[in-house]
Amino acid sequence: MAKKKATKKKAAAAPKKATRREVLVVGSKTKAALKGSGKTTFNVSSDALEALNDLLYQAVEQAQKRCAANGRKTIRPYDILA
Question: pTM of this prediction?
Answer without folding.
Answer: 0.68
